[in-house]
Amino acid sequence: MGRKWNNIKEKKASKDANTSRIYAKFGRELYVAAKQGDPDPETNQQLRMVIERAKTYSVPRTIIDRAIEKAKGGSEEIYDELRYEGFGPNGSMLIIDALTNNVNRTVAEVRAAFKKNGGNLGVSGSVSFMFDATAVFGVEEKSADEVLELLMEADLDVRDVIEEEDSVIVYAEPDQFHAVQEAFKEAGITDFTVAELTMLAQSEINLPEDAQLQFEKLIDALEDLEDVQQVYHNVDLGE
């Protein structure tokens, strides 16, 4: 698959270690998930999924509980879920997911980030056809064979199971997220190094050094935006 999921997570966590940005982004996502359905993660699968991902980024339980309580408390904050697609240097492709209470502000900021860093915002569908929605899990203290066996016992046929450093990474269809999670739970596995839905590039590209530096500046500019939740791309950054 060409993606070092644990390294990507660690890089993002390190980048945000001295700020509250990552907590604020998760707080917003948790609030929206709780607001759109039952604020109980036992009955709200979307909320449960966001909680699992937050845990892999070491988001404190107080942040999680606060966001859910805010939704329970009848807050009238409304966020739109937006997806932008665009192109970076040398044919690179990006998908940006955002949650915003001001659509005009968000699109202006995303467009400016592209323009200042050698890219341009595309139209809907211009990039997404080159990506696949994918559920990704990472578990430790299990071999790939052991993970395959427990998934087979749960009658789950996933896309791929690979070993990556000290973890086993499972790639599955997006609608298998909760079934895979339950299979691990039945096997006594409740902690994950990765647990999320992502947009996985069908193929990755390598950029020359100057273009890669520019591309990384583009990624940083987009991830720095308050409304941006996730940035997906097709560049092998050697992570």
From TrEMBL:
Which protein are we looking at?
Probable transcriptional regulatory protein CGZ90_01635
Primary residence: cytoplasm
Of the GO CC terms on this record, one is:
cytosol
An individual GO BP term: regulation of DNA-templated transcription
Q: What highest taxon heads this organism's lineage?
A: Bacteria
For molecular function, the Gene Ontology terms on record are: DNA binding
Keywords from the named record: Cytoplasm, DNA-binding, Transcription, Transcription regulation
Organism, by scientific name, is Fictibacillus aquaticus
| Cross-referenced InterPro entries | Integrase-like_N (IPR017856), TACO1_YebC-like_2nd/3rd_dom (IPR048300), TACO1_YebC_N (IPR049083), Transcrip_reg_TACO1-like (IPR002876), Transcrip_reg_TACO1-like_dom3 (IPR026564), Transcrip_reg_TACO1_YeeN (IPR026562), YebC-like (IPR029072)
According to the entry, every stretch annotated as the TACO1/YebC-like second and third domain falls at 79-235
Q: Which Gene3D superfamilies match?
A: 1.10.10.200, 3.30.70.980
Give the protein family. Belongs to the TACO1 family. YeeN subfamily.
Q: Where in the cell is it found?
A: Cytoplasm
Report the residue ranges that make up the TACO1/YebC-like N-terminal domain in this protein: 3-74
